[in-house]
């Protein structure tokens, strides 16, 4: 709220006025919870670096419970990152000493070079979060990034989200998807990449990941909303955790 300059009452009212967006809000909350739970487990297992890819308005660095134990790199499009840093300053939110900003354009720049310039240690076990980004990138950019993560010498973990192809969704889910897709495209950031779970897992294992956990809608509901556990086709948004060690 401080970063955006809004207030809780307005956000709640606007959410109530947009009931069709409730599933997306729940998915966004769940993917963050899943990522942070996985990160906590990884820190207990020796992770000492976190890279937030496409950081946007991610707030973890400013509320991290790990302090100096976990070095954090926020990677984002240069103009977006500059805007966020301006908002942080205006909101008087202190940038902690364990955070380093690394401006990188995923489509035109090397993630390796951007992180190296920021002081990233490839020999240290590292956790990557990549939330709300993959659908907007080309397949080439996605696999270049995942290939880099798989090649981190100290071992790596990554959590990211994706969606099944629109043509595989039910009529109801396809209508919701198309409405959301139209909104983001109108805002200038179209969804361009989708995956089939089995094919994605196979390719992840093929580039060096040893473990892949993929939660589709049914698994997400069973884990976080058991009272809403769904039946039927397990299609829609997915959250993936993959590791090389």
In which range does the helix fraction lie?
A: 40-55%
> What is the CATH first-level class name?
Alpha Beta
Mean pLDDT score, rounded? 93
Report the CATH topology name. Answer: Rossmann fold
Order of helices and strands: HHEEHEHEHEHHEHE
Q: What structural class do the secondary elements suggest?
A: alpha/beta
Describe the structure.
The protein is α/β, with parallel strands linked by helices and 245 residues long. It has a single domain (20-243), classed as 3-Layer(aba) Sandwich (Rossmann fold). 40% of the residues lie in helices and 17% in strands. It has a seven-stranded mixed beta sheet, with helices on both faces. The longest helix is centred in the N-terminal third of the chain and has 23 residues, at 22-44. It is globular. The relative contact order is 0.13.
Summarize the structure.
It contains 8 helices and 7 strands, in the order H-H-E-E-H-E-H-E-H-E-H-H-E-H-E.
Give short descriptive properties of this protein.
245 residues; alpha/beta; Rossmann fold; 40% helix; 17% strand
Topology of helices and strands:
Elements: H1 8-16, H2 22-44, E1 49-53, E2 71-76, H3 78-90, E3 99-103, H4 111-118, E4 126-130, H5 139-150, E5 156-163, H6 171-186, H7 197-206, E6 211-215, H8 217-224, E7 237-243
Parallel strand pairs: 1-2, 1-4, 2-3, 4-5
Antiparallel strand pairs: 5-7, 6-7
